[in-house]
Design goal:
The chain has about 350 residues and is of the alpha+beta class. It has 2 domains: about 5-145, Orthogonal Bundle (Topoisomerase, domain 3), CATH 1.10.268; about 160-330, 6 Propeller (Neuraminidase), CATH 2.120.10.90. It is built from 8 helices and 15 strands. It has a 4-stranded antiparallel sheet with strand order 3-1-2-6, with no helix packed on it. A 4-stranded antiparallel sheet has the order 7-4-5-10, with no helix packed on it. α1 packs antiparallel against α5 and α1 (about 5-45) packs across α6. The longest helix has about 40 residues, at about 5-45.
Length: about 350
């Protein structure tokens, strides 16, 4: 609910008067009890009510005698005499009774009555009392301390995703788990709860998802980075794959420029088997062929830079008609690990 400045002031003004009222009533209650106690003590001593209990043999008889002694002075009492009142009166030591100063007691009673009268007046004029309280607070400060130290300015919305700090490690372990809750393993990125990550699995399937707590992505992860289109679209993926039927190897170089969240995509043509994924612009690789009788060529070297970039959905270029057993990429200019 939006409140105006006037509405806020009215709300806190009512709250202040309510607090002042509670404090005054609490103080009035304390003073009333003190007045009652002093009145009982004066009558108990002045009228020698304590003498009436000397012949009493039981506690019940003593209490009854004390209460009966106050009956003639009922109009002077604030309230009825209770058992607790009797108990307090019986605790008065003899020395205090003998030294009781009636004038001092009357002065104390007069002071209490004056305070009660002042409280009653304040309760009838709570608004004036609240204003007086605020004036008293203001009087404690100098003119410079009451000046406004803030300035009114225009407020702008802040995108929390832009200001939050990337300080949570995203880890990948040797069991194939990726996430911020993964213990051990390799730290790949520093992320925020608002980040999304691009994941390229060993199978050639890639996905974009929110930063996971702990997600199984299999071992042999090819690539992982922030799912920022400016970042991912600048990555040239080199994919070497094999046809399971002919076992011939193909190469495709392409970029990923778009995606739908939490949807799996296959970077190679459907039904193909991914052998290697690389993000280097230039690197060499070797195809190792299946051994055949009388076949002299058992392996062949290629340079990825010799092949042109194609569209993401395009088929790759056939590298050889020979049946490929495996591929080995050179490790001279190492591909940055997973990034």
């Amino acid at each position: 609910q939006v409140m105006t400045a006037t509405a806020i002031i009215q709300y806190y003004a009512k709250k202040l008067t309510a607090i002042i009222k509670d404090e005054l009533e609490y103080e009035r209650g304390k003073l009333t009890e003190e007045l009652h106690a002093r009145t009982l003590e004066r009558i108990f001593i002045e009228e020698r009510i304590y003498k009436k209990i000397e012949q009493m043999k039981t506690a019940e008889a003593v209490a009854a005698a004390v209460k009966k002694g106050f009956v003639p002075f009922k109009d002077e009492l604030v309230r009825e005499v209770t058992d607790d009142d009797v108990e307090q009166l019986l605790k008065i030591p003899i020395r205090r009774i003998s030294l009781f100063d009636i004038n001092k007691n009357r002065d104390a009673v007069a002071s209490i009555n004056k305070q009660l009268k002042d409280i009653s007046k304040k309760l009838r004029h709570l608004t004036d009392c609240a204003v007086s309280y605020l004036d008293g607070i203001l009087a404690k400060f100098g003119p410079q301390e009451l000046e406004r130290h803030t300035h009114i300015a225009q407020f702008h919305a802040v995108d929390v995703k832009r200001v939050v700090k990337r300080d949570t490690p995203l880890r990948y372990d040797d069991k194939g788990y990726l996430g911020t809750a993964v213990s051990g393993g390799t730290e790949l990125l520093r992320v925020t709860p608002f980040d999304r990550v691009f994941i390229m699995r060993r199978s050639g399937i890639y996905t974009v998802c929110d930063v996971p707590d702990k997600l199984f992505v299999d071992t042999g992860l090819w690539y992982c980075n922030y799912a920022d289109k400016e970042i991912i679209s600048n990555v040239l993926f080199t994919v070497i794959y094999r046809d399971p039927q002919t076992k011939c190897a193909y190469i495709k170089r392409c970029r990923v420029s778009g995606w739908i969240m939490n949807r799996d995509y296959f970077i190679a043509p459907e039904g193909m088997e991914v052998l290697h994924v690389d993000t280097r612009q230039r690197f060499g690789f070797t195809l190792r062929y299946e051994k055949k009788p009388r076949a002299k060529l058992v392996q062949e070297q290629f340079n990825a830079a010799d092949f042109e970039e194609k569209g993401l959905k395009a088929n790759g270029v056939k590298l050889s008609a020979r049946e490929t057993e495996s591929v080995e990429a050179e490790s001279g200019d190492m591909q940055p690990a997973l990034l």
